[in-house]
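re: that chain from earlier
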Amino acid sequence: MKAIAAAPGKVILAGEHFVVYGEPAIVMAVDCFANVIVEHRHDKCFYIKSDLGFSGFYSKERFKPESGGIEARTLLEPIRISAQAAIDRINNPTGLNITIKSEIPVAAGLGSSGALAVATVAAVGKLFNVNFTNEELFNLSFRAERFVHKKPSGVDQAIAINGGLIVFQKEKGVTPLNVISEIPIVIGNTGEPRKTGDLVNAVKKRRERFPQILASLIKAAGQLTTDAIKALKSCDLERLGELMSINHGLLVSIGVANKTLDKYVHAALEAGALGAKLTGAGGGGCMVALTTLNNSENIADAIRKVGGEPIIAKKIEEGVKTWTQ
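^ sequence. v structure.
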């Protein structure tokens, strides 16, 4: 029997980085998925294979690469951590074959690692007929996120589990945001990888150098997200778009944008986007443009012309789902 789990990626419409300091963030699940297929093995090894061309065997924590060389362990280790966390929780020490097939670009700000961690835990649970609660999925997948991002906010796992639109705040956790209207977006992928942990640390250091200025920016970002929530609830996409563009300016001011992201943002706005901003950690990765249903292709073309890889996406209501074959 094969157990399969699919967890969605995400974009952040408002609040990234500032969420680390207790402010809210608006996160939307999008229709690109991390898929994990899990099968039993007759030994106690983990064999993990990724569609990125990496594979290898784990015997306990010892790793033997099959393809991809030394780099394979860096990519596959979060999957092993997630699978091991689920196995430990189930208390059934067994071997697993794990196959990764993901539509979410890696290290691009779209929640790839969080979605993969959640999908891995959910798939292992499904294999053993264990339905983890959302809280268990979050806590078990958080181990791998700590490995990848050092001090993650928890946003990526939260949206992969819940789907739809959520407001995430450290002290309050997840609050679902029920919005009926379509929220059409175009994502622009720079193809420039970056490390979330490094960027979070860079913001922390800037905050230590300019505490009063950063305190004001963090407070402003919190108010912006609150206003963006109101715009979503009233289906005022024009106001939401304007707030997204302001949010990009705040992210520029804390040092997490770059020339490529700025170029894509401006190209999208010139093509008629309602608003645009980087999404995720910044420093590369992706930007997101809010558009209207009849203008998505124009904005995608504009991003493509300046060197980006556009992805026309939409909100997906479901979080992680599992099934067997």
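The two ends are 6 Å apart (CA to CA).
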